[in-house]
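F.,

This is the one I mentioned.
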């Protein structure tokens, strides 16, 4: 927990302080909309979802077999197969001494109180012999056993996965209330940036950050307002921020938030709104800025591709998830074994790109050879990030904290 009276511009924040600071300032979207289930995956529920039916709606069989009375089997007499009940049909009442051929999911006929699996029975014509002990209730799924009518099946704030959407469909609900998608405006700064497909001149590079940022925002199902790349000038930066603030809940940039003479984003923010945070003690990615432009929040990420990627995963993603109405926004961490040495301690927390492999049943992490913030290939090679605390060293065989890209990119 950070001191609520501190000024974040007076110091470099730790990663934990920066996260706490950002999440306290993430304003949840309050606009609701109705969507059908085909459009629901990835959206966030704005209201609790309650079932209007029992699931299953009636007692049904858990397997293929024969529905019968347990007492008839206990008598040791043969049974007569009087009917056949496929799934989707309803059988007739079962009388004493009768059995019904029944298939998985079909309703239990009135009069039956058990099901015997087909492998334990022999049918010859209409005669049935049961070669097993049978108890009342065997292999019967009771009405409402999974879900009872009126029960809350999903709470508001749930980010819907395919299985969540399937659960809603299983109770017959065709549309649900969700929060509006976040509107995120993005642009890159730098005269050196060139779009893929264009000729690269002396001192120029292709703009990878635009595509990294777009792809990362797409994983969160955001509505993206792409302003492209803008020139390195204060006037152009001011104009871009003003344009972005007209419709965006959040403005995100890459580059321009350091203290160099050609870094204009911070200066433009000072002119238009506020800069409330701009340095985090982490590597890669020290310059991470947060502020306001009119009614839009602002997040400025570093210009180096790996730094932009890492800071989005660690800061922008939880910030946007909180805006979407989700309470639990932090990625799950796990412990793995280091298959490397990290002998030099540093003052900043480091997030290093690594792969996982299994050695005799032990999950181990191996580092990419170069941890430079400009080596984008490291993010493609890696399975996730190893978190190395401030002033810490790592020896091969140590337990270390792992953040998987499955958590960070979904």
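My design for it:
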């Amino acid at each position: 927990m950070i001191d609520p009276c501190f000024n974040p511009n007076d110091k470099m924040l730790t990663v934990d302080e920066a996260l706490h600071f950002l999440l306290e300032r993430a304003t949840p979207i309050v606009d609701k909309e109705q969507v059908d289930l085909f459009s629901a995956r990835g959206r966030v529920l704005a209201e609790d979802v309650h079932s209007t039916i029992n699931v299953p709606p009636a007692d049904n069989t858990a397997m293929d077999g024969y529905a019968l009375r347990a007492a008839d089997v206990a008598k040791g007499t043969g049974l007569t197969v009087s009917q056949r009940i496929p799934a989707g049909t309803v059988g007739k009442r079962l009388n004493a001494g009768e059995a019904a051929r029944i298939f998985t999911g079909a309703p239990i006929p009135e009069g039956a109180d058990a099901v015997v699996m087909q492998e334990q029975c022999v049918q010859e014509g209409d005669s049935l012999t049961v070669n097993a002990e049978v108890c009342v209730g065997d292999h019967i799924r009771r009405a409402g056993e999974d879900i009872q009518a009126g029960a809350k099946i999903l709470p508001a704030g749930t980010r819907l996965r395919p299985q969540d959407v399937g659960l809603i469909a299983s109770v017959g609900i065709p549309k649900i209330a969700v929060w509006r998608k976040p509107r995120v405006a993005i642009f890159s700064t730098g005269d050196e940036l060139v779009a893929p497909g264009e000729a690269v001149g002396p001192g120029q590079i292709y703009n990878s950050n635009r595509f990294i940022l777009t792809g990362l925002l797409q994983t969160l199902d955001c509505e993206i307002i792409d302003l492209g790349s803008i020139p390195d000038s204060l006037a152009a930066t001011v104009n871009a921020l003003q344009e972005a603030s007209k419709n965006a809940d959040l403005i995100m940039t890459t580059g321009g938030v350091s203290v160099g003479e050609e870094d204009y984003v911070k200066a433009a923010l000072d002119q238009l709104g506020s800069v409330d945070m701009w340095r985090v003690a982490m590597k890669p990615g020290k310059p991470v800025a947060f502020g306001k432009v009119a009614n839009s929040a602002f997040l400025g990420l570093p210009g180096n591709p790996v730094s932009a990627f890492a800071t989005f995963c660690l800061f922008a993603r939880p910030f946007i998830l909180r805006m979407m109405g989700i309470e639990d926004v932090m990625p799950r961490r796990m412990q793995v074994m280091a298959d490397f040495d990290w002998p030099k301690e540093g003052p900043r927390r480091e997030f290093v790109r690594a792969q996982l492999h299994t050695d005799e049943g032990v999950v181990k992490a191996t580092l990419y050879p170069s941890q430079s913030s400009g080596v984008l290939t490291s993010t493609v090679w890696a399975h996730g990030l190893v978190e190395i605390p401030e002033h810490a060293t790592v020896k091969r065989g140590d337990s270390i904290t792992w953040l998987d890209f499955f958590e960070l990119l979904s």
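DSSP finds nine helices and 26 strands in the chain.

Talk soon.
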